[in-house]
Design a protein that fits this description.
Elements lengths: L2 H22 L3 E8 L4 E7 L6 E2 L5 E2 L10 E4 L4 E6 L9 E6 L5 E5 L5 E8 L4 E7 L4 E6 L5 E3 L8 E11 L5 E8 L9 E6 L5 E6 L4 E6 L5 E7 L2 E7 L5 E3 L4 E2 L3 E10 L2 E7 L6 E7 L5 E6 L4 E9 L16 H9 L3 H9 L8 E3 L32 H23 L2
Antiparallel strand pairs: 1-2, 1-26, 2-3, 2-4, 5-6, 6-7, 7-8, 9-10, 10-11, 11-12, 13-14, 13-27, 14-15, 15-16, 17-18, 18-19, 19-20, 19-21, 22-23, 23-24, 24-25
Length: about 425
């Protein structure tokens, strides 16, 4: 093998290595999931190819709680996922959790007693965890510190406000606005679902419009524009929302598609992934819609052993080789899960319908309550289909193979020189 051939091989190998490196930098889809049998909340990886779930009990909050209503946010800069777990006992505080996407380390703090966040978002700059929350004095925009301290941003948003579609909220692309779906409280005598937009700097009300269609998922598409997945006459659509509450569909939608679990979604460029169920079935599945074309597609069935409460896309993929290295459960957690197997979970598995927060909640009510507004459909989160096996990334193995090949080529050239 001459030097020219060696250089060509090395160049090809380098290109291959760079391609592998680029592939490994792609965003990862994570889910915060309740593992039913063991009674734990975990950060799991969800395949965008077939919806297979990769779990490792190291990334779990043992004997913790259940995340509810898609109260989940993430920040690649801090390499962290943030989420809220409610408590239906008014004498106990709701909790704020952080899980490192790089190491799997978890931290939990109590929120002030009586504080009930109904939407959670992460503003990247300045880095702030934002929430729409009520402490009994009305719904307002707040910031939450890593220590669990809550600071109001402005006054209560509206008089008699609001019952939120839990988790159906979004930041604008410049993080200057938060949009959410709500209705006024019964005292207002107006049950119409509304699009409400507030300024993230001041908490000031910017938009309060009756919605033509009720969003199941909301995303920011510009500095002052938002879009949604919504249901209309047996068809699921993706469309652009106007400040007057009207919606313009993108594409022709997907007839007889699915029932979307409110707020359980994550976006990567023009791919918006979300959890839903086939019509007439309790099995949960992973879907996606192309936000440029409005075309819906099904990715696959989700493992029935988990209830996915929230999804997030992150470019932090450092944890994949460490946290999701094997499929083995932590023995201590497994034993604890078996000891506290609850009759409720058994009943839920048997029925195929685990408990979940109602998709619409009064701001002063616990998330386990029920909606009184028939105009906003009730969407429950349910367990998924048969267990699937996922394969871990092979990028590291392939990279080592390339390096071995390069070393072999260099050795051959060295031997020829000294032959």
């Amino acid at each position: 093998m001459n030097g020219s051939t060696l250089r060509r091989c090395a160049g090809l190998a380098l290109c291959f290595t760079m391609a592998l490196g680029a592939a490994s930098a792609q965003a990862t889809l994570y889910g915060v999931a309740h593992q039913i049998a063991e009674g734990r909340e975990s950060l799991v990886r969800v395949s965008v190819a077939d919806a297979a779930i990769t779990d490792n009990a190291q990334v779990a909050l043992a004997n913790c709680c259940r995340v509810s209503g898609a109260l989940l946010a993430s920040d690649d800069a801090t390499q962290t996922a943030y989420f809220i777990t409610p408590n239906d006992d008014p004498a106990l505080a709701w909790q704020f959790h952080r899980i490192s996407l790089a190491s799997g380390t978890a931290a939990t703090v109590n929120l002030p007693l009586g504080e009930k966040p109904l939407a959670l978002l992460r503003r990247p700059s300045p880095a702030t965890t934002l929430a729409l929350s009520d402490n009994g004095s009305g719904l307002r925009l707040v910031s939450i510190s890593d220590a669990g301290a809550v600071s109001a941003i402005g006054a209560a948003i509206l008089t008699n406000c609001c019952a939120l579609r839990v988790g159906v909220a979004a930041l604008s692309t410049d993080a200057s606005r938060i949009a959410f779906v709500a209705r006024l409280l019964p005292a207002a005598g107006d049950p119409a679902p509304r699009l409400i937009v507030v300024n993230t700097g001041s908490g000031a009300l910017l938009v309060n419009a009756v919605l033509a269609k009720v969003p199941d998922v909301l995303i920011g598409t510009g500095a002052s524009t938002f879009a949604a997945i919504y249901h209309d006459a047996g068809t699921e659509f993706f469309g652009n929302l106007a400040n007057d509450g009207s919606v313009t569909p993108v594409g022709s939608g997907q007839a007889n598609c699915c029932k979307v679990y409110a707020g359980v979604s994550a976006r990567n460029a023009n791919r918006l992934r979300f959890v839903g169920g086939d019509l007439g079935s309790s099995a949960a599945r992973l879907f996606e819609v192309n936000t440029a074309t409005g075309v819906f597609s099904e990715i696959g069935a989700l493992n029935a052993a988990y209830v996915i409460h929230g999804l997030l896309e992150s470019n932090v993929n450092l944890a994949s080789d460490v946290i999701f290295q094997d499929g083995f459960e932590n023995a201590m957690l497994l034993a604890q899960g078996e000891e506290k197997s609850m009759a409720l979970d058994a009943a839920l598995v048997a029925s195929g319908m685990p408990d979940s927060a109602d998709s619409v909640m009064g701001a002063s009510a616990a998330l386990a309550g029920s909606s009184t507004n028939a105009s906003i459909k009730d969407v429950d989160q349910v367990t998924g289909g048969p267990q699937q096996v996922t394969e871990l990334p092979v990028g590291n193995l392939a990279l080592w193979s390339v390096l071995v090949m390069l070393l072999a080529l260099v050795g051959m050239r060295h031997r020829r020189r000294h032959a």
